[in-house]
Design goal:
Rossmann fold; 2 domains; eight-stranded mixed beta sheet
C-alpha cells in the first residue's frame, strides 16, 4: 500500500524525507545542492563515476556549484552509481539528458534507462518527478508504463509528476529558488505531492493541469528564444548587406517601452536546450500532421551563422591581402556562452572546424575551457595575452567571457572579427 498522505507530508515538511536526484549534470547537481541546503538528506545517482567521486570529495565541476557551497549544507549530500539507493528514498527527480539525434529526433534512451532502473527498485509511496526536457507526452506515455509494470497503480502505490528545469548556467540573478517552478502530476494526488516537494526549495510553484502542458511549456520557452535569436541573426545578415550595425538597430528598437524584447545576434546557437528542444516539439507535431514551419526556418537561419562568421573572417583577411590558408587565427571563446565551461552545441566549434579545414593556423583562447577535441585532435587553450593578440593575423571574438572585457587587448590586434559586440568600433574591427 502507498504511504499515508500525512506521513509523506510530515516527512517533507520536517525535512526528514530522503530525496534523490538522478543525473548530476547542469540541472541535477544544482537541484541536489538546493535540497541539501534546505536541510534534506540527498542522494545523487549518476553512472558517471568521475561526477560521483567529485561530489563525494566536494570538488567543483560546474560553475553554479563551487566548492564553497558544500560548506553551508544543512542536510547531507552523497552520491553513488548504484540504483539500489532508490529503495531508501521518499522522493526523487530524474534529471538525465535528452540529446537530439543526427536526424533531429529526440533521443529518450536515458529517460527510459533511468525509469527502468527506478522501477527495479521502486517501493510503495514514492514520488517520482521527471525534470528532463522532453517531447510532450513522455511522462505519461514512456515513464508511467515503465513504473506500472511493477504492478503498482499511479496515484495510489506510487506518484508521478513532471517539473521542467529552468536552469540558466552562470546566471547569478535567477536561481532555482527565485525562478518560478512549473509542476504537473498524472493524478491530483501526484500533483499535490510534487507541489509540496518543490515548495521546500522554490519561492513560487505554479501548478498546471497535466504533464503534457508542462512539457510543452518548457519547449515553448526555448522555442521562443530560438526563434527570436534567429530573427536577430537574420537582422545581422540583412544589416551586413545594408552597411549598418545590427547592434545599433537593436539598441534603437529597444527604446520602445512596450511590445519589444531585445535579442542579439551571434555566431549561432549553443547549449543543450535552445538549439535542441524546439525540434522535440516539431518532431512530435509531425505525428499529428502539423509542420512547425517557423521552428524549421529559425533553425536554418541559426545554423547558417557559423558559415557567415567564417566568410566574414575570409573577407576581412582578403581586405588585408591574406587568405585563410596559412593565416594565424586566434579564436576567443569556445564555450557556448560567456562565463561557463559548457561547449555543448557551441557554434564556436563549428567555426573552428571550418577554419581548420580551410588551412588556417588556428588556436583558441578560453579561460573556462582548457581543451577541446575536434575530429580526434586535442586543442589546448592559449593564454589571454598581448603576445597572442599581437601574433594573430586575425582575432575572432566568439564568446563574451568577462576576462576578455576586463583586459581588453584590442588595440594590439591587427584585425578583429567581432560576433558579440564586445570590441569598440575601429578601422580594424569587423562586426557580423
Amino acid at each position: 500500500m502507498a504511504a499515508p498522505r500525512n506521513q509523506f507530508d510530515e516527512r517533507i515538511a520536517s525535512r526528514t524525507a530522503r530525496v534523490g536526484i538522478i543525473g548530476l549534470g547542469y540541472a541535477g547537481l544544482p537541484l541536489a545542492m538546493s535540497f541539501a541546503e534546505a536541510g534534506f538528506d540527498v542522494t545523487g545517482i549518476d553512472l558517471n563515476q568521475e561526477r560521483v567521486r567529485a561530489v563525494c570529495e566536494r570538488e567543483a565541476y560546474l560553475v553554479d556549484v563551487p566548492e564553497a557551497r558544500y560548506e553551508g549544507l544543512d542536510g547531507e549530500l552523497t552520491a553513488t552509481t548504484d540504483y539500489s539507493a532508490v529503495r531508501e528514498l521518499d522522493a526523487l527527480t530524474i534529471c538525465v539528458p535528452t540529446p537530439l539525434s543526427k536526424t533531429r529526433t529526440p533521443d529518450v534512451q536515458y529517460i527510459v534507462s533511468a525509469a527502468e532502473s527506478v522501477a527495479a527498485n521502486l517501493r510503495p509511496g514514492q514520488l517520482i518527478v521527471l525534470q528532463s526536457t522532453t517531447y510532450p507526452g513522455t511522462t505519461e506515455e514512456i515513464v508511467q508504463p515503465i513504473l506500472e509494470r511493477t504492478g503498482g497503480t499511479v496515484g495510489e502505490d506510487f506518484f508521478l509528476g513532471y517539473a521542467p528545469e529552468r536552469v540558466d548556467p552562470g546566471n547569478g540573478v535567477f536561481t532555482i529558488q527565485n525562478t518560478p517552478k512549473l509542476v504537473a502530476g498524472v493524478t491530483e494526488e501526484c500533483l499535490r505531492r510534487t507541489q509540496l516537494l518543490y515548495r521546500q526549495i522554490v519561492d513560487v510553484v505554479i501548478p498546471v493541469s497535466r504533464p503534457m502542458v508542462a512539457e510543452t511549456a518548457k519547449l515553448h520557452e526555448n522555442t521562443f528564444r530560438a526563434v527570436n535569436i534567429a530573427l536577430a541573426n537574420e537582422l545581422a545578415l540583412m544589416c551586413d548587406r545594408l552597411g549598418i550595425s545590427p547592434w545599433e538597430v537593436i539598441e534603437a528598437a529597444s527604446t520602445k517601452p512596450f511590445g519589444f524584447l531585445p535579442h542579439f545576434p551571434g555566431p549561432g546557437l549553443g547549449g543543450d536546450c535552445i538549439p535542441v528542444v524546439p525540434h522535440f516539439l516539431a518532431w512530435r507535431l509531425r505525428e499529428y500532421g502539423y509542420a512547425a514551419q517557423l521552428i524549421e526556418a529559425a533553425h536554418e537561419v541559426n545554423a547558417r551563422m557559423p558559415n557567415h562568421v567564417v566568410q566574414k573572417v575570409s573577407d576581412a583577411l582578403n581586405d588585408h591581402g591574406l587568405p585563410i590558408k596559412g593565416a594565424r587565427l586566434l579564436l576567443l571563446g569556445v564555450a557556448y556562452k560567456g562565463n561557463v565551461h559548457d561547449t555543448r552545441e557551441s557554434p564556436s566549434l563549428e567555426v573552428m572546424n571550418q577554419l581548420l579545414a580551410r588551412g588556417g593556423d588556428v588556436r583558441y583562447c578560453d579561460p573556462w575551457v582548457p581543451f577541446v577535441d575536434l575530429e580526434g585532435v586535442r586543442h589546448e587553450t592559449v593564454p589571454w595575452s598581448q603576445e597572442e593578440v599581437r601574433a594573430a593575423d586575425c582575432v575572432v571574438v566568439l564568446t563574451p567571457h568577462r576576462e576578455f572585457g576586463d583586459q581588453p587587448f584590442w588595440e594590439e590586434a591587427r584585425l578583429v572579427v567581432d560576433t558579440r559586440n564586445l570590441v569598440p568600433p575601429g578601422p580594424n574591427v569587423h562586426s557580423i
